[in-house]
Amino acid sequence: MENALALSGPAAVLLLILVGSWELIRKKRRKQSGTPLAETYINEFTAVFYGSKRMQLEHRDSVAILREEDAQGAPPSAVDLAKGTVVVPVSWTERSANPAEQGKSGSS
Fold first, then answer.
1. Residue 19 in 3-state DSSP?
2. Overall average pLDDT of the 39-48 stretch
3. Which positions, given as ranges, span the membrane (predicted)?
4. Given this model, what pLDDT does residue 59 score?
5. pTM summary value
6. CA 78 distance to own-chain centroid
7. Higher-confidence residue: 56 or 101?
8. Cα separation, 39 vs 45, whole angstroms
9. SS3 108
10. Cβ neighbours of 37 (radius 10 Å)
11. What confidence tens digit (pLDDT) does each residue in 46-99 have?
12. What does the alpha-carbon distance between residue 93 and residue 23 come to, in Å, rounded to a whole number?
């Protein structure tokens, strides 16, 4: 019993090395995407000993589910850092409703 328990650590490390190398070979051949099995194993093994790792993994899972929205209510804009300009499109209805614009167009 003691021998089995003493050899379980090195056996797990050897298994992890074998699985990791198999995944590298498979990834080079087929351009596989996704989370590798070896990375999942290491993350879960670390989460057993560190509670903060478990919270990090759960946060990562919850963020992956969320929908990404680019502007979230902001108007579309084009920012050109090289020229130092920002272009914000304005519709004609907004321009005609602006009192400052009406005063400028009446005096011209």
1. helix
2. 83
3. 6-25
4. 92
5. 0.42
6. 23
7. 56
8. 10
9. coil
10. 13
11. 888 888 988 998 998 888 888 766 655 665 667 778 888 887 777 666 555 555
12. 58
Token digits for 63? 């963020």
pLDDT digits (tens, 9 = 90+) for 12-33: 888 888 888 888 887 777 766 6
Percentage of the residues of the chain whose pLDDT score is greater than 70: 69
Sequence length of the chain is: 108
- The 10 Å Cβ neighbour count of residue 80 is 9
Tokens of 64: 């992956």
Give the span between the Cα atoms of 25 and 22, in whole angstroms.
5
If you ran DSSP here, which 8-state letter would residue 34 be given? S
Identity of residue 19: V
DSSP letters for 78-95: EEETTTTEEE----HHHH
Q: Is the CB of residue 78 less than 8 Å from the CB of residue 87?
A: yes
Tokens read off for 101: 């614009």
